[in-house]
Amino acid sequence: MNEGSFQARGTLFILDNCEWRQYYVVMGLVSDVKTQRIILTARSKKRKEEEGEEEFVYRFRPEIQNKGPRAYVIRVESSAKSTEKETIALRFETDNISKKFEQFVNTWKVSQANSCSSMNTGAQGHIATPKERTHHKLHHGQQLNDKWALDRIIIPTSTPTSTSKKKKVSNCNKVTKIFFWSCPSCLQMNDLEYATCDACDTPRPSYVCNDTQSGERTCENANHSTDPWGGGGGGVGGSGSGRASVDDSRDNKISSSHIMTLTSANLEMFTNMCPSKRPTIEQLLGSQIKFWVQRAG
What InterPro entries does the record point to (predicted)? Predict the structure, then answer.
């Protein structure tokens, strides 16, 4: 990589009809001195049923907004629609790469040593050492969660059953990776750590937290596979006592965590379960007398 260019891996978010579309891309930035713009080219692999790659090309001025750890919001001009402005967001895997990105946007160049460190990120992602994790701090002084790095560790497997389980877990982990939330008032994208909108101070919607918790709950259920034959845990032809104890504890956990919340969708159900009309004292006394008479007779 020469001076005047920058390449790295990261996540691209595109705002389309008030919804954020997420792509894992390899991006390259080139400075254009004539137009005083920075050209961003991002390539992402298409889905399994499609072949080839998707390419996104944008132009923007060297003006970026920092919206949290390693996250930036940019107003860009698309090559296909040069007259219209679009909103995109970039998120990098490590703090080192994000600093190089800021350096390139501000100075339009990056040193050779910095470029080598940004290109050494492989397909498995960057796994931070314990010393690096202690230095990764959020704005509120909290340490970075290690789960974000552990989700990207690829564990080699040989059996098809374990491969199918890994696909289920990886698909479930995609639900939990929520990095931003959109303000319902001004459609401003904010980091998940912010409780209010950075532009209009609107409180963060409650469904953002509920979606994250439901996704984590789904992942926990996906990690536990059910045995249709009722075998014991570990041996061939087991008695099944270990599996039964696990199922009982799981049923108790599900029954204890089932709590109905009052919303506009289930208001009628809640009204039927808890009617507002209560029985009078005469009706209560009559039912009690009838009960004791039947029991005595």
Answer: Znf_RanBP2 (IPR001876), Znf_RanBP2_sf (IPR036443)
Can you give the pTM of this predicted structure? Answer: 0.35
Query: What sign has the CA pseudo-torsion 80, 83, 84, 87?
Result: positive
Which of 253 and 44 is assigned the larger pLDDT?
44
- Rounded to whole angstroms, the Cα distance separating 205 from 3 reads 43
Provide long-range contacts, Cβ within 8 A and 24+ apart, for 160-164.
Answer: none
Partnered with residue 45 across adjacent β-strands are 53
Domain 5-121: top CATH class:
mainly beta
Rounded CA gap, 132 and 61, in Å?
A: 32
Going by pLDDT thresholds of 50, 70 and 90, the confidence category of residue 275 is low
Is 180 within 8 Å of 90 (Cβ atoms)? no
Q: Contact, 93 vs 10, CB < 8 A?
A: yes
Q: Which ranges in the chain are annotated with CATH 2.30.29.30?
A: 5-121
Question: Which helix (DSSP H) or strand (DSSP E) does residue 75 occupy?
Answer: strand 71-78
